[in-house]
Write a structure and sequence with these properties.
mainly alpha, Serine Threonine Protein Phosphatase 5, Tetratricopeptide repeat, 24 helices
Amino acid sequence: IGRGFTYDELVAAGNGDEETIVSGLDELWQRKLIGERDTNQYDFSHDRIREAAYVDLSPMRRKLLHQRVVRALEQVYVQDTDTVCGELAFHCEQAGILQNAVTWYQRAGQVAWERHAFSDAEHYQRMAIGRLAALPTNRNSQEQELKLQVGYASSMTVTIGMAAAERRAALQRAQELAQTLGDVNELAKVLNQLWSVYRALGEPQGIRSCVDEAHRIIDQVTEQQSKVELYKMLAGAAKHFGEFEQSLSMTVNVIQLQTSIAQPDTPTGEWPGGMKFNLAPVLWIAGFPEQAWEIVRSNRAERDRTSGPFVRTNMMFQTAILLRNLGCDAMLEEEATQMSVLGAQYEMAMSQQGGDIFTGWLLAKRGDLAKGIELTERGINAFRRTGHTMYQTHRLAMLVEMLLWAKRLSEAEAVLQEALGISEHAEERFWDVELYRLQGDLLLAQGAPATQAEQSYLRAITIAQQQGAKSLELRATTALCRLLQPQGRSDE
């Protein structure tokens, strides 16, 4: 049964011979080989005792006993198998009932995800995929593997990050399966995860391949939720490339579709209002700060009440981007703190790192430059180590600003060049306007000719106009005006 077991489980596995079972338990108790862990629960005194007893069993006997344990667990927990699905999976595997083992491992992974035990979810999904590979391949097994690979990738997003090679492999396998099966609804869900791998790794051609496939299948998709997944991807890809009007349009489509579906709250934390928080910073960039603020103000409480920790911290990150640019420092501090706390509590590294980065920026803004820069650099370094470039231009721009405050100009220049390099290589254009504005600020701080700074500001303004980034255009234009005014060029 395992190291720990209940009396009821033992009776069921022992074919109900209670007299013999009680006598056996009494003897083991007297010899101090087992102890009472809780009411009706027993435990071996040491793992070695259980291991020694198990080794003495023949393979045939072990298989029989595992089969009995499976029946016992199904009998005792008939109304609540979710509490023992991991144990059922293990015993089915040891009993040689592999198809049932796969099913129970799959269910154990889903239960763990719903309970926000993300590492456990990843473990069970990996076990299910491995055991499924030992079974004959047919359409049913391919459909089951497809769902497992998608779930496995979701868990790895939390546990080891979006850019992990294992996550990429799982999603590419899922894409292959969906294409083989001709299942466009599942393919849509795969694409919404797969494009994020390419975005995290800074591979724009991969992003474009996902976008092209999304456009190819979108009219064939029949499930509304699958269309939601495609529009989410298209909205995110447009934002990545600095196509803000397109991003706004696609995000609105997502929100409208989710509203029409009227999905109930789910244990996984997929709150239908979540995309509003993706919309808010894009609205601000496009020149609608009041509407962006209203989204956050009116939905923040419901977000915290109804969303699971993973989805919630993603929304908090989008909120933090907006609040930093609106100058709402007190609320930003709350968001950053919660990101760090939830990240630590649920072992969500990206959330914890994101919270640290924003907290560091606030510390630096309030005058504690050394501590703030150290904290922000620590968070950024974690993303550097994993090769994660998604939103890295934004994070690096924050650090450049802080280094300028501290007059650490050579460091600021190196970080800015890193950000510009990512922008060029990954084609992450959504923060380009700020990078060139900061370049102008840095040139002035370094004592470069004013004409050089002017060219940087003008480039920032040009990009903003091309992107329709009104708020960023205003910021760059203000910087240019401050440069021109002392030169007697106020009319310009």
